[in-house]
Amino acid sequence: MTESTPKRAVVLASGGMDSATAAHVAADEGYDLYLLHTSYGQETEDKEYECARTLADELDAADFLHVETGHLAAIGGSSLTDDEMEVEDADLDSEEVPTSYVPFRNANLLAMATSYAEANECEALFIGAHSEDFSGYPDCRPAFFDAFQRVVDAGTKDDTDIDLRAPFVEWSKTDIAERGTELGVSYEHTWSCYRAEAPACGTCDACAFRLEAFQNIGVRDPIEYEERPEYAE
Asked: Which positions in this protein are listed as binding Zn(2+) (predicted)?
């Protein structure tokens, strides 16, 4: 890449609020964006794709890549992809790995994103994982991203230099909502619910953390909910 070439970044764009905020952070830092969205058999995959596609249009992304990763559903082991498992109601104080955990999903997604980044001479790779994720999901821990950075360094060409960025890894969902609001993220075009494509249920883990974040910053979450419990203390 020559000095005159704009710097480029891949963003894993799930369609949710964390990845949308990460994309805005990358754009704010001056990166040309290459958005990667994956469908892996989750209950709300059509809605998530719609939101990720809208994000790419809003940010005038240089490229948008949609990949089907059906092997994650075939492997199973998650309530997001397995019809035999129910999506649990929110338990924000639980220290157990929730049933929504998709086994080793982030390693799968980051591997594809690294390929995409190297092929397009991108300098950075952004993922929106944060502290409330890694309290429940082992592949969202800071140690995982540190280890994956070493994998990227070891497994790409000698002249490839991709910086794995998890800018929110020590942040709460509230911190993300606050920063995204400052950046003007269109949260009405993001989706977090694990159960439904419209309206959001309001009672699964993803809805609960999202609603709590907006309630903490005093902003009404702009999407529609079947139930809108009060989660903020």
From this structure: 193, 201, 204, 207
Is position 85 annotated in a ligand binding site? no
The three-class DSSP label of residue 164 is strand
Helix (H, G, I), strand (E, B) or coil at 175: helix
CA distance 35 to 11: 5
52 is in an annotated binding site: no
Q: Report the CATH number at residue 66.
A: 3.40.50.620
pTM equals: 0.94
- Kindly calculate the radius of gyration of the chain based on its CA atoms and give it in whole angstroms: 17
Contacts of 36 (CB under 8 A, 6+ apart): 10, 11, 12, 13, 65, 67, 109, 112, 113, 116
Q: What share of the chain is helix, strand, coil (3-state, %, to 5)?
A: 40, 10, 45
Q: Does residue 3 belong to any structural domain of this protein?
A: no
- Measured in residues, the chain has a length of 233
Q: What is the pLDDT of residues 32-75, one digit of tens each?
A: 999 999 999 898 999 999 999 999 999 999 999 999 999 999 99
Query: Is 70 annotated in some ligand binding site?
Result: no
Total domains, the chain: 1
**Tokens at residue 158, please?**
């000698």
193 assigned to a ligand binding site: yes
